[in-house]
Each structure stands twice: as structure tokens, then as C-alpha cells.
Amino acid sequence: MISNNNFTLTQNPDIKNLKFNNFQVVSKTKPTKKTFENLILAFHICRFVKSNAIVLTSENSTVGIGSGQPSRLDSCDIAIKKMNEFQNMSNKEILAASDAFFPFVDGIERLVQNGVSGIIQPSGSIRDKEIINFANKTETILVFSKSRHFRH
User: Fold this and answer.
1) What residue ranges define each of the domains in the chain, with the CATH number in brackets?
2) Which helix (H) or strand (E) holds 25?
3) What is the distance between the terminal CA atoms of the chain, rounded to a whole angstrom?
4) Crossing angle between the packed helical segments 105-113 and 72-86, to the nearest 10 degrees
5) β-pair type (141-145, 23-25)
6) How far apart are CA 88 and CA 7, in angstroms?
7) What are phi and psi of 111, to 5 degrees?
8) Fewer CB atoms near the end CB (10 Å): N or C, the chain?
């Protein structure tokens, strides 16, 4: 709970136990069981990262995190930069999770341009169809969640 100038912001803890039926593959490209499990791992990690969180994973490990930015695209850039600074990701499957939906295609486009082959995010944007169309055009795995992790 945060209090400032007689205003209070409260937020419930994000402790929901997510199961496979909480997710829907919305792209034409389908994940393998292993990839799907790794996408869910990335989404679980997102619950512990603050606003506009982007988590990049590979082989059951976190390889980049971007967060706390006014723009989801900026968080993508930070996560990609961190991944490139510390990891050699050539020939590895890179997956991404977002704590809330992508409001525009630009963030997903940036991730795909940097080697991401699968993305998990909550649904709910008025541009969800544009996001799905872009994923299909680039043969990117796209999974929607019924819940979001957005934290402040």
C-alpha cells in the first residue's frame, strides 16, 4: 500500500495458480509442450516484475528483463539489451512474456526482430487482432492469458 497526499493505492497480491487451461494459443504456429511450459514459466516470472514488464527466457532461464518504463516498447528494448549483453543466444529458442497486453504491434515486432519465436501475454487490447495477424505473418507463437500481472 502506498499513501501520498491523502490518496492510497492498494493492490492485491498476485498469487493466482495458473494452469494450462488459463491460456489460449491464438496463432497458427503452435508451441511444443516444452515451449508452452517455458512460455508459462516466463509468464510466472512476470508476476514479480514491476509495470510494463517484459521477460525473455531461454532453456528454462531468464535471459533479459525490462520494466518500469512508461512504454512497453522501451521495456522490450531494455530486455533485449540485457539479453545481448550477457548471453550468446544464437541457435537458442527465445521466448517472451508481457505482464499486460501489447497495445501496439511495435513491441512484438521488436521482439521478433531480435530472435523471439514465442510470446505470451494477456488478451484484452482493442488491437488483439492486429497482434495475432502479425504473429501469423511472422510465424511467431502467440499465447493469450486470461489474467494479467501488471503491478505498480
Assistant:
1) 22-145 (3.40.140.20)
2) strand 23-25
3) 10
4) 10
5) antiparallel
6) 46
7) -65, -45
8) N
DSSP annotation string for 105-144: HHHHHHHHHTTEEEEEEE---TTHHHHHHHHHHTT-EEEE
Give the Å distances, CA to CA, from 111 to 6, 17, 18, 60.
Answer: 40, 27, 24, 18
Please say whether the dihedral angle defined by the alpha carbons of residues 43, 45, 48 and 52, taken in this order, is positive or negative: negative
Cell of 105: 504491434
Give residue 67's Cα distance to chain centre: 11
Question: What residue type is 113 in one-letter code?
Answer: Q
The answer to which of 17-26, 104-113, 118-127, 133-142 has the lowest mean pLDDT is 17-26
Model-level pTM? 0.84
Residue 58 or 12, more confident = 58
